[in-house]
Amino acid sequence: MINSRQNYLNAKRFSADLALEHIIPHNVCFYLIPPIVDLTIDEFEKLALERLKMLRLLEQVTAKNPKVSSEAWRDAVLAEVNHEGLRTYAKLARGNLNDDASKAARRRDYLSHFILRFAYCRSEELRRWFVAREMELFKLKFGALSMRDVKDFLEVYELDYKPLSDEEKLDISEHLCASTYNQTRLKVETHDFYAVHFTEVLNLVRDRKCFLKGGVAYITPDHFAHVIGKKHQQLIEDGLKGHLRLLPTLEIDERFAMLLKSIHTSYTGKNYTVAKTGCVPIESLDQLSKKSFSLCMRNVHDTLRATHHLKHVGRMQYTLFLKAIGVTMEDALRFWREELTRGKVPIEKFEKEYAYAIRHNYGKEGSRINYSPFSCMKVITTPIGPGETHGCPFKNLDSSTLKMKLTGYGLSAIDADDVAGFAAKGHYQIACGKYFEVVHETKLEEGINHPNQYFELSQLSMEGKERPRQGHAAANQSARWNSQSNSQSTQDSGSGLVVDSSTLNGADDDLELWEIMESKDKETDADATICEVAAPEILSKKISPKQTKQTQEWEDDDFDMLEFNE
């Protein structure tokens, strides 16, 4: 490690990229020294979201295959990596190579790790999630190394571990076979074994899974990966603490503050801002909801049909979903008119007031922002109050209520228990994927990250088609928080960075729409003697012209800023 630091200092007189090559000469690396490079905001964001997509992928695969580093786990991860077009991480998981593509992948890996450290250092919960995912990524990369690659890695980081020589293995071969699970003499002869102090593998000693002699434990390559992994984990945990101390300084720049706070809840999948399928008639919504709507959308739809009323966030969530599946604005207006006027909203009030909000969601009124439909992460993290039906049922419903709803929708008690089991563990998107598999009687090859993705996969499943695999270019294009239709880059004269203004205001509010929707809820609920109070200082806030953009996804601050007592 000392040499690595010295190499870095010596390389500072060369270009930043050359310095990076000196501190990351291996596909598997310890993230020891923060890189010194110039990045645009756009590059910063892309690197962060690419890695975030990889970490979420690991989380989903591990939830289904808990035995990390097993062959089944590794195969499942690589299948998803290839499916999602994550070429950087596919390259890093092929062992240690020194071609140009590998060097480029190492650079992206190294930079993105340090970027996400700033996003995930701010709370214990975020740090715990980040460390767990990074350890899974480390095991994926380390597991691909050959014996020669492992030796190179140990030399690069000056780790005092050496595999046993053939003579040493021969002397204790019988003990290695007897004390190590599933070992044969042939495996002992062809695989490396490492000698480590017994205090580094107390779990193996306790479970009698290694040969112990004179305070030295002799371990297999798989167990050796855990030894190295512990060192890697400690370095990351210490690094997160250091980044936490630096965070206030970095967040002086509001652009980075907004960017870093939003990363964990950002959507990294396909753009569903505009429907790419044909027109979906509103007459088919009841039938579609039974199979092609995710549970969150089906819950909202059924509530609307039963009560002829949804509160403002539910209306917005459902309208944007309908827009993205192919419901035209004219049909959406007709659909909402028919439903709401059956409830408490007079036709005159709807035409004068509610219709504006619907046209606004379609980007035809006000600032003409083309809002994105809510992703799973947005649905999960959006607060829900009394009487509201938006949000994720897998998160918001208790286990017994969830099981009752699932069995009411036709799932067997066994399947309902299976789905609810994932939800109880906090794996809400895994639970949604399992729900999809039961409803469609098929195996789902990818994780659910968006209600509109669920709808698209359902339609493909019923048509007997296979979802097209996402290439690298598509992956890069989709790894955006808010896909832009006409985004423009502006030059920040103060910093010299090229800034894409559409990525910097994800938490800005379109107060015009909020005031309208809030006003309508207040007036409607007032008829039922329900009073709603909004924070006046928030409603009086004005947005500067620089804060407008062509497309926008509703962010957490949009909901936190208004305190609705509905």
UniProtKB/TrEMBL annotation:
Domain of life, source organism: Eukaryota
Note describing how the cofactor binds: Binds 1 [4Fe-4S] cluster.
Keyword 4Fe-4S carried by entry: yes
Pfam families with a match to the protein in the record: DNA_primase_lrg, DNA_primase_lrg_N
Biological process terms in GO annotation: DNA replication initiation; DNA replication, synthesis of primer
UniProt key word DNA-binding: yes
Binding site for [4Fe-4S] cluster: 296, 376, 392, 432
Recorded GO CC terms: alpha DNA polymerase:primase complex
Region named Disordered: 463-503, 541-566
Matches recorded under CDD domains: PriL_PriS_Eukaryotic (cd07322)
Cofactor: [4Fe-4S] cluster
Single GO molecular function: 4 iron, 4 sulfur cluster binding
UniProt keyword terms in alphabetical order: 4Fe-4S, DNA replication, DNA-binding, Iron, Iron-sulfur, Metal-binding, Primosome
Sequence ranges of Acidic residues compositional bias: 553-566
Domain DNA primase large subunit C-terminal as annotated: residue spans: 286-455
Function: Regulatory subunit of the DNA primase complex and component of the DNA polymerase alpha complex (also known as the alpha DNA polymerase-primase complex) which play an essential role in the initiation of DNA synthesis. The primase subunit of the polymerase alpha complex initiates DNA synthesis by oligomerising short RNA primers on both leading and lagging strands.
Family, similarity comment: Belongs to the eukaryotic-type primase large subunit family.
PANTHER family with a match to the protein in the record: DNA PRIMASE LARGE SUBUNIT (PTHR10537:SF3)
Protein's recorded name: DNA primase large subunit
